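Hi V.,

Quick status before I head out on leave. The structure for the redesign project is tokenized and pasted below; the design run finished overnight.
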């Protein structure tokens, strides 16, 4: 089906075929980035989960490797589920993962490379004493999963957390170990938040308050804040919060109880789940991987024979300007795919107008856009006490005084299909401005079996900042970063007409009261090499 094969991305990571979900155990070893992932070798829906494996020199071009781990022991017979890597100071790799046992009990298992001298880490050994952890008293046997990367305590022990829940409170259980084989459960919790349900794929890591580089997981001290992230099973979104880690009593306290884990900010307001960070010692950065699922029907996934992609890996830093947000940005290596570019400098877009951007092909793009609003018109615009939210709004077709304006991607010539990515400003009493950032799927496709939500959130804009967007378009993926990555939206869209050579790009301003000035630079993007393993008979 040629229409469905159009949807396959060209530079986002994915297996050759079948189902993929969570990123697992990312690490850098002997010059190679390793990426493992939840994978169903038998079909395009979730099930029979094993660990897929691929390696890369630059996080963009990949070589698929043989499956790293499959269910072949009683303690993971129902699935080799999500886990994380820890690199010990002597270079040894320790992998901890959740096994769903023959009785579907969630336990934690230890694995390590069979041959540490192999930079590709092709073969993996499961520890003979597995499982190393079973659900503790009071925890349901199906609510105990996804161990984190370990970090060092000042006592010289390794500490991990494991996600769970008690009633409807999502929690992170804490364990200390010296050898990754024997563990001691610590009293209390790293953290818990009522009403947030099961915490999957908990992540915990330091971010620097002063520097523009990432930090290894064990770094602690006054120059550091700590991030807790949980993937909420109940709404399938990744929520993080910034706070302070108290090593002595193994707890973490959010800076602001209103922006706590699961009730505050998200990594991404589109589809982005079960994410995981790792420290890249080669470039001194922390990198975030996230699973971007499908938002078409399961039937369509089975027809096309694959489901899900991974986000472009994102570097992650504390946003020193807001203190409340992280900044996520595509790793710089993605820029090696940039081909020819078009620039549009200070284009005036009047209220209520649409403009085609002649960039040629528009299915693989990297777009950088900046917007300035006519200052006088902004001052004159009426104040309003209306509340706005992207998801309950009428989308890019609904006009307000100060928005929407932005870029429409994957549009056809007549705009019968289009995915607008845009800002919408509301001027409140006293002239305060609140900026919203949305991605509108409502007209993205004429197909009827696809999700047509309007995604988005408010985005903090600091005094003197221009409004800015970065958009990666890759066939059925639109990954957008507003204000340098303070707020992000990844979406999957499935146009039926705006495909191949028929895809176009537009600039629009649907505000009623202001004109905007837009400057854009748009690159055509090359495809990445994502190659099968040479011996693979597939
Ligand atoms: N996916 C894994 C679990 C994890 C969930 C199973 C999150 O370990 O909790 O495939 O998507």
């Amino acid at each position: 089906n040629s229409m469905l094969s159009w949807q396959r991305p060209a530079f986002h990571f994915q297996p050759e075929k079948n189902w993929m979900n969570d990123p697992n155990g990312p690490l850098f070893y002997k010059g190679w980035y390793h990426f493992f992932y939840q994978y169903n070798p038998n079909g395009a829906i979730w099930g029979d989960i094993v660990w897929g494996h691929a390696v890369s020199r630059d996080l963009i071009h990949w070589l698929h490797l043989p499956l790293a781990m499959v269910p072949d022991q009683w303690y993971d017979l129902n699935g080799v589920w999500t886990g994380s890597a820890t690199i010990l100071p002597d270079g040894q790799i320790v992998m901890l993962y959740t096994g769903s046992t023959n009785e579907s009990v969630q336990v934690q298992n230890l694995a390590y490379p069979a041959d540490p001298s192999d930079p590709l880490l092709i073969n993996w050994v499961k520890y003979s004493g597995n499982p190393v952890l079973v659900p503790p008293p009071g925890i349901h046997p199906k609510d105990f999963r996804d161990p984190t990367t370990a970090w060092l305590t000042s006592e010289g022990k390794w500490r991990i957390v494991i996600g769970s829940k008690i009633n409807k409170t999502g929690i992170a259980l804490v364990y200390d170990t010296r050898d990754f084989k024997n563990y001691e459960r610590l009293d209390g919790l790293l953290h818990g938040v009522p009403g947030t349900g099961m915490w999957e794929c908990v992540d915990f890591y330091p971010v620097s308050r002063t520097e523009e580089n990432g930090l290894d997981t064990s770094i602690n001290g006054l120059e550091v804040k700590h991030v807790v992230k949980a993937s909420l099973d109940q709404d399938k979104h990744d929520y993080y919060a910034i706070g302070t880690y108290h090593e002595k009593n193994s707890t973490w306290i959010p800076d602001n109880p209103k922006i706590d884990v699961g009730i505050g900010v998200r990594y991404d307001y589109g589809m982005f789940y079960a994410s995981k960070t790792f420290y890249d010692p080669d470039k001194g950065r922390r990198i975030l991987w996230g699973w971007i699922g499908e938002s078409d029907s399961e039937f369509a996934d089975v027809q096309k024979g694959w489901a899900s992609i991974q986000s472009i890996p994102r570097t992650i830093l504390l946003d020193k300007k807001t203190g409340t947000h992280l900044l996520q940005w595509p790793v710089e290596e993605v820029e090696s795919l940039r081909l020819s570019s078009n620039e549009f400098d200070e284009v005036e877009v009047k209220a209520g107008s649409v403009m085609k951007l002649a960039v040629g092909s528009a299915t693989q793009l990297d777009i950088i856009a900046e917007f300035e609003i006519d200052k006088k018109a902004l001052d004159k615009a009426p104040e309003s006490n209306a509340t706005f939210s992207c998801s309950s709004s009428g989308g890019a077709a609904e006009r307000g005084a100060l928005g929407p304006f932005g870029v429409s991607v994957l549009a056809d010539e007549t705009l019968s299909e289009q995915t607008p990515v845009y800002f919408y400003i509301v001027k409140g009493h006293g002239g305060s401005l609140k900026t919203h950032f949305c991605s509108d799927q409502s007209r993205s496709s004429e197909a009827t079996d696809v999700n047509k939500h309007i995604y988005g959130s408010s985005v903090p804009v600091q005094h003197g900042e221009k409004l800015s967007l970065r958009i990666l378009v890759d066939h059925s993926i639109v990954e957008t970063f507003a204000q340098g990555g303070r707020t992000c939206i990844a979406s999957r869209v499935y146009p039926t007409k705006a495909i191949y050579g028929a895809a176009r790009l537009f600039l629009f301003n649907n505000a009623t009261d202001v004109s905007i000035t837009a400057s854009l630079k748009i690159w055509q993007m090359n495809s990445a090499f994502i190659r099968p393993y040479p011996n693979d008979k597939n």
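Above is the designed sequence. The CA atoms of residues 388 and 397 lie 14 Å apart.

G. will cover questions while I'm gone.

Best,
W.
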